[in-house]
């Protein structure tokens, strides 16, 4: 049993976007020369991730993921379950917190051209001061979680060889129908 | 089956050596990804100049003033509008330049420096920051100073100058040797400092000219880009700063006079764009453009009220020079991105700090109730 094709496409598209997003985020806060260009990428990319994460959640509800192998130890099963909840929470939560914190700071949230998102929180510097470090902390948490996810996926693919990795693998050629 | 295979749940097809190799490869990949992240985040290059270090230096030079801007700390809010002349329409598609357009404006006049309680002084650089609120959530924010050119060309020179120009507590003046060394290392700043020193000092904010200093690009509806530098030129005639003014005991005389002037009649500035030509420096704010460049009067900023800094007004606005509407874009000037970064850092720090009242209070209307 594999993830359906939309799930696999969404997974790998978002993997690229989220990794790019995390690297842009960590670079922009220490880069004077490229700060503006990086922030200008960070905003629309974040909204893109938010939209795709919502689509993905809907797809997951309609097409539940394949079962984990029966011989997987219980703690690994629980870790997989918990980490997926956290991954979804952060994929949705980080862009929302970013949007909310920029709203609280009173910044126009430009996505490019003349497109500006409406604020989702009232303007309040105190809220901004609270959300801004939270956004960073959760971004680090997401990066850590992605590293754990990557390590676990490779354990399945290279060592356990139990079909978990290949259930999400993106095949360039469509497999011939049986 | 080895212990290793049992522990990892490895496929029986793999011998322990292969498991070990593969584990090593996975570990290497994960550690490599973490290392790349740390590298991009600057953990391995502590010497690089960052926005945090710039704001740290402001705090070190000026001392702690929680809740206040780290630079241009002493200020007064203003409210008004912008009336377009329609002459900017062919240069920029930004809606505020369209014929007959009236755009709400809020802003802030301030004195440069990180001392929120410093007494007003004639030679302190004055600033005019404005926030134009365009339809559909677009904004144009701009910070402008009453000097002809900016004193430094790069963020690194700015950082060095902050320390070199720090007043010695004993003399109240910067260490001449430190300044000499700074100018020797940054000769363009010596030239700029001379131009800045020569400027005419006017009697107050209302008759002063404020310049954007950095170059920007105007983008027209057909995509044509024009390099511009803008200035806010006073609607009223300039008068020179008088000795009587300078000798006043009122520590806020510049702000108080502006408040009084606005109460008497709206204060106006023409927004005049100077159009750059081939060869005009766009990435060097220390060098003026030739005076004969075409200038276009884009419209008038009309200030109708002032307001002491308080919750929710200009105090809580970051006048980031790269908050721009479609139709205005940044240039290759390295100061712009650095300003944007440092302003955001200053804003994030002060946002969470307790607020003290500004030194500049609302002046009670003269003769009110009489």
TrEMBL record, chain A:
<keyword id="KW-0349">Heme</keyword>
<feature type="transmembrane region" description="Helical">
    <location>
        <begin position="12"/>
        <end position="35"/>
    </location>
</feature>
<protein>
    <submittedName>
        <fullName>Cytochrome b561</fullName>
    </submittedName>
</protein>
<keyword id="KW-0479">Metal-binding</keyword>
<dbReference type="InterPro" id="IPR052168">
    <property type="entry name" value="Cytochrome_b561_oxidase"/>
</dbReference>
<keyword id="KW-0813">Transport</keyword>
<feature type="transmembrane region" description="Helical">
    <location>
        <begin position="137"/>
        <end position="159"/>
    </location>
</feature>
<feature type="domain" description="Cytochrome b561 bacterial/Ni-hydrogenase">
    <location>
        <begin position="3"/>
        <end position="168"/>
    </location>
</feature>
<keyword id="KW-0408">Iron</keyword>
<dbReference type="InterPro" id="IPR016174">
    <property type="entry name" value="Di-haem_cyt_TM"/>
</dbReference>
<keyword id="KW-1133">Transmembrane helix</keyword>
<keyword id="KW-0249">Electron transport</keyword>
<keyword id="KW-0812">Transmembrane</keyword>
<feature type="transmembrane region" description="Helical">
    <location>
        <begin position="41"/>
        <end position="58"/>
    </location>
</feature>
<keyword id="KW-1003">Cell membrane</keyword>
<keyword id="KW-0472">Membrane</keyword>
<comment type="similarity">
    <text>Belongs to the cytochrome b561 family.</text>
</comment>
<dbReference type="Pfam" id="PF01292">
    <property type="entry name" value="Ni_hydr_CYTB"/>
</dbReference>
<feature type="transmembrane region" description="Helical">
    <location>
        <begin position="85"/>
        <end position="117"/>
    </location>
</feature>
<dbReference type="InterPro" id="IPR011577">
    <property type="entry name" value="Cyt_b561_bac/Ni-Hgenase"/>
</dbReference>
UniProtKB/TrEMBL annotation, chain B:
<dbReference type="InterPro" id="IPR024168">
    <property type="entry name" value="Catalase_SrpA-type_pred"/>
</dbReference>
<dbReference type="InterPro" id="IPR011614">
    <property type="entry name" value="Catalase_core"/>
</dbReference>
<comment type="function">
    <text>Has an organic peroxide-dependent peroxidase activity.</text>
</comment>
<protein>
    <recommendedName>
        <fullName>Catalase-related peroxidase</fullName>
        <ecNumber>1.11.1.-</ecNumber>
    </recommendedName>
</protein>
<keyword id="KW-0560">Oxidoreductase</keyword>
<keyword id="KW-0408">Iron</keyword>
<dbReference type="GO" id="GO:0004601">
    <property type="term" value="F:peroxidase activity"/>
</dbReference>
<keyword id="KW-0575">Peroxidase</keyword>
<keyword id="KW-0472">Membrane</keyword>
<comment type="similarity">
    <text>Belongs to the catalase family.</text>
</comment>
<dbReference type="InterPro" id="IPR018028">
    <property type="entry name" value="Catalase"/>
</dbReference>
<keyword id="KW-0349">Heme</keyword>
<keyword id="KW-1133">Transmembrane helix</keyword>
<keyword id="KW-0812">Transmembrane</keyword>
<dbReference type="InterPro" id="IPR020835">
    <property type="entry name" value="Catalase_sf"/>
</dbReference>
<keyword id="KW-0479">Metal-binding</keyword>
<feature type="domain" description="Catalase core">
    <location>
        <begin position="24"/>
        <end position="370"/>
    </location>
</feature>
<feature type="transmembrane region" description="Helical">
    <location>
        <begin position="20"/>
        <end position="44"/>
    </location>
</feature>
<dbReference type="Pfam" id="PF00199">
    <property type="entry name" value="Catalase"/>
</dbReference>
């Amino acid at each position: 049993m594999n993830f359906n094709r939309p799930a696999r496409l969404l997974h790998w598209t978002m993997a690229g976007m989220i990794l790019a997003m995390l690297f842009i985020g960590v670079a922009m806060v220490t880069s004077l020369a490229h700060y503006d260009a990086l922030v200008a990428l960070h905003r629309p990319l974040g909204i893109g991730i938010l939209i795709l994460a919502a689509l993905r959640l809907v797809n997951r509800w309609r097409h539940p993921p394949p079962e984990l192998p029966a011989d997987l130890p219980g703690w690994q099963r629980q870790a997989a379950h918990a980490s997926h909840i956290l991954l979804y929470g952060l994929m949705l939560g980080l862009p929302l917190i970013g949007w909310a914190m920029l709203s609280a700071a009173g910044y126009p949230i430009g996505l490019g051209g003349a497109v500006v998102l409406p604020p989702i929180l009232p303007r309040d510097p105190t809220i901004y001061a609270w959300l801004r470090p939270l956004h960073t902390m959760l971004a680090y948490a997401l990066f850590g979680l992605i590293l754990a996810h990557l390590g676990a996926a490779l354990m399945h693919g290279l060592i356990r060889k139990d079909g978990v990795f290949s259930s999400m693998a993106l095949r360039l050629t469509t497999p011939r129908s049986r | 089956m080895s212990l290793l295979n049992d522990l990892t749940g490895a496929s029986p097809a793999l011998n322990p050596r292969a498991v070990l190799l593969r584990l090593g490869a996975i570990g290497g990949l994960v550690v490599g990804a973490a290392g790349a992240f740390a590298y991009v985040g600057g953990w391995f290059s502590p010497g690089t100049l960052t926005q945090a270090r710039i704001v740290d230096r402001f705090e070190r030079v000026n001392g702690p003033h929680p809740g206040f801007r780290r630079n241009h700390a002493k200020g007064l809010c203003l409210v008004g509008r912008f009336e377009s002349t329609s002459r900017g329409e062919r240069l920029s598609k930004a809606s505020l330049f369209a014929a007959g357009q009236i755009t709400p404006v809020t802003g802030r006049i301030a004195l440069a420096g990180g001392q929120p309680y410093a007494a007003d002084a004639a030679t302190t650089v004055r600033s005019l920051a404005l926030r134009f609120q365009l339809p559909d959530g677009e904004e144009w924010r701009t910070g402008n100073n009453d000097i002809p050119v900016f004193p430094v060309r790069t963020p690194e020179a700015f950082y060095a100058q902050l320390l070199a120009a720090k007043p010695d507590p004993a003399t109240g003046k910067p260490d001449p040797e430190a300044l000499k060394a700074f100018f020797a290392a940054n000769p363009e700043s010596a030239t700029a400092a001379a131009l800045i020193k020569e400027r005419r000092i006017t009697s107050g904010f209302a008759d002063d000219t404020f310049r954007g200093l950095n170059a920007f690009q105007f983008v027209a509806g057909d995509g044509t880009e024009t390099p511009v530098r803008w200035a806010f030129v006073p609607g009223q005639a300039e008068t020179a700063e008088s000795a009587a003014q300078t000798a006043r005991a009122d520590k806020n005389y510049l702000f108080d006079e502006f408040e009084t002037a606005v109460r008497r009649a709206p204060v106006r500035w023409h927004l005049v764009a100077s159009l750059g030509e081939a060869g005009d420096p766009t990435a060097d704010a220390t060098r003026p453009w030739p005076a004969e460049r075409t200038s276009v009067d884009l419209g008038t900023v009309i200030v109708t009220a002032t307001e002491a800094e308080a919750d929710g007004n200009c105090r809580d606005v970051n006048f980031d020079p790269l908050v721009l509407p479609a139709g205005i874009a940044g240039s290759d000037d390295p100061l712009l991105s650095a300003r944007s970064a440092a302003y955001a850092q200053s804003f994030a720090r002060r946002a969470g700090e307790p607020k003290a009242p500004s030194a500049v209070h609302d002046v009670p209307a003269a003769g009110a109730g009489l």
